[in-house]
Amino acid sequence: MSDTTKPQAQPDVTPYARPEEGTNPPLLYPPYASTVRRAPKEPLVWLWHTITEVTGPLLGERRLGDLDHDLTRHHRGEPLGERIIVHGRVLEGDGRPVPHTLIEIWQANAGGRYRHDGDQHPAPLDPNFTGLGRCMTDAEGRYRFITIKPGAYPWRNHDNAWRAAHIHFSLFGRAFVQRLVTQMYFPNEHLFFQDPIYQSVRDERARQAMMSRFDLSETVPEWALAYQFDIVLTGRDKTPIDEDH
Question: Cα angle vertex 190, ends 208, 31, to 5°?
């Protein structure tokens, strides 16, 4: 943030550490065309961390369905595509787990199309795949989703523009200041070089924090490949904010 006046927390409130410079992508990154329209024109103002920011929200398990974590079982039939397991841990910057916190994901189907009125590119919709899921982390901060590997898709940002395959993640953490919306990418993707959303994260350590890794130990023989994606909410190794609009 460009404002050099950085207030501390209010008395008797322990603030969360601010992310290091370069962890999150800049709000204005001209190769990512929509940032030109939406980026703030004035310097940002640092806000106090009050008791409101460093506590809550709390979301209970009663808000979840038994199959919310398994995106392949939300309809009567099996969705098309490569079944995968996505698992990992949600952590504080010092390595402590973040237990019982809500994770939501959304993604395109195997053909690279979202079930959304705004996505009209010529790829088929899958009647057995909605592309939405959620779960709570366990006492050790672990989570697990079963889904279909998403396809790449065109998005008109620039000539012949395609988004690298990814899954969107939304997390609430322990407090409002830990709120995170990011994207998980797959290793060895061949579209990174021309994806400005990925390229806008300049720090290589931060880029690696958005990258899943293939995990043979959690792969289920003859059923599903597994990818591990650990998410860090604070500190030096924080997973970057990475949204698309």
Answer: 75
What number is the average pLDDT over the span 181-188?
95
Catalytic position from the list 89, 168, 198, 227: 168
Catalytic residue among 163, 185, 198, 227: 163
| The one catalytic residue among 89, 113, 166, 174 | 166
SS3 159: coil
Catalytic status, residue 114: yes
Q: Tell me if the pTM is above 0.85.
A: yes
Does the pLDDT at position 220 exceed 70? yes
Residue-wise pLDDT for 125-150, tens only, equals 999 999 999 999 999 999 999 999 99
Domains of the chain: 56-232 (2.60.130.10)
Distance of alpha carbon 214 from alpha carbon 85, whole angstroms: 10
Active site residue 166: yes
Q: How far is CA 9 from CA 18, 51, 127, 179, 233, in A?
A: 12, 9, 50, 18, 19
What pLDDT does 64 receive? Answer: 87
Catalytic residue among 153, 185, 198, 227: 153
